[in-house]
Design goal:
The chain is of the alpha/beta class. The chain is built from 8 helices and 13 strands. The protein has a domain of 197 residues: Ribokinase (UDP-N-acetylmuramoyl-L-alanine:D-glutamate ligase), CATH 3.40.1190.20. Helix 6 packs antiparallel against helix 7.
Length: 293
Amino acid sequence: MDNIRIVLDNIMPIGLFIGLTTLDFIYLTPSIPQPNQKIVAIDALTAAGGPATNAAMTFQWLGNHSRLLSAIGKHPSSQFIRFDLANLELFDLLPDRLESPPISSILVTQSTGDRAVISVNATEFQVDQFPLKILDGVDVVLIDGHQMVVSAAIAALAKAHGIPVVIDCGSWKPGFETVLAYADYAICSTNFLPPNCEQSNEVFEFLNGFKIPFVAITQGANMILYCDHNRSGTVSVPIVKVVDTLGAGDVFHGAFCHFILHQDFPTALSNATKIAARSCQSFGTRSWFSALD
């Protein structure tokens, strides 16, 4: 894609990304270990991660300004996260928290690019306070559902001020209905199954109850299903040689936030898939930054 970084009228768009930040230990392995087996990794990386965090990094790389609202704290591991995210505008929901931030251990299988993840999310440290001026200058908001109380409050403010709200619907979480009530865009994975939903048509029907104008369901390497003001359609996904699928959905969401500021819904989905596909062609969640340059 040519001219993939778009900034209109020399004004850098600002995106607010709300949710989870983790410390990721990522290993490229020949296979998943069997019980009591030890294996040597082919490669390894340590990086800050999490859905909202990876999306924010992608949005920033595409020529925008990312503002990340997350819980980091001041544990020694938190210092690494702050260093790794130094290029983002970071707002810490729990700056005095002494406990370790969430840690993820991730195994990426070399032959398939599939990943296995063991992690701790933000369930144990939900926050209900946020900086009052967090929306100043913001052009788009993305919510990953890991800080539901704060997310619902900010989504309501964003809606009142005409700022589009994008929801990363990775999996159903208690309280999601409080956020979906303010959504303009719901980008769902096949793992997003609200109560009494088992198939994609039921998910579309459920979200239609919240009067969300734009809904999409991603299906990995298969085509994206979408509904645009009750008009349905599909978007094809590029076929690439997959090295690592870790964070591809997060990259997709960050890229979507970029493109939706300039393009219609299906076009933004299509271009976001191209960015996500590029990210799958190298190991780690950010190696593709330099590869795409």
